[in-house]
Amino acid sequence: MSFYDESHQELCGLKLEHKIKKLTENMAELIRSFKYSEGPDLYFYQKTISLHRQEPLLELFDDETDRYIELIYATLASWGMNSRGAKTKYFDEFKSSILANKERFMSLSSLMLDDLSANEFEKAKRLCGMIYSNLHVMKSSAKLISNSKTMHFILPDLVMPMDGQNTLNFFFRNTSESKNKFLEILECSYQVAKKVDLRKFLDNKWNLSITKVIDNAIISYMSS
Prior knowledge:
Blueprint: H1 3-32, H2 40-54, H3 57-62, H4 67-78, H5 91-99, H6 102-108, H7 118-134, H8 144-154, H9 164-172, H10 179-195, H11 210-223
Helix pairs in contact: 1-10, 1-11, 2-4, 7-10, 9-11
């Protein structure tokens, strides 16, 4: 690695540390001022997470009625992943891509972001990276937003949903996507979860998991 690459990497790290600090120091106020909306996006999200909490993930994946994966599909659409330039694959292809990663999802399904040691997190991050690379739910080549949201619905206690307007702009001041950015955001969410008791902000509306609490804090910050 050249001196320039090392300096650039160090600068990027410092910028991300600054973003983490903004969240950890202002979490309570950001969640307090978060503007809660109610509509199809919340309805389907609550249904998806509720079903996830009620039954083992293996049973949900093996359910011949496809109700869980159908809920994920509907929630993605209600979160804007089948509008304007975003086009989700037809359900059969969508389902196949998720189930192709079934074993990887299963190995991560019991993990809580704030419970992980540094070594445990690194192992989980590597596996999340493998899922990211092998999950193809959109007709376009874009992956970060659709994959992070899909992974969040399946691993709500480990992976936060990400978008361009809020997440990418907050951390990087641009909306370009990459696997490295996905992993860096995952790392930042872990750092936040280890420094703040996020569980005290959980509720039965939008704050259904600690990773969504972080996401909501970012949305609140970007809308202030």
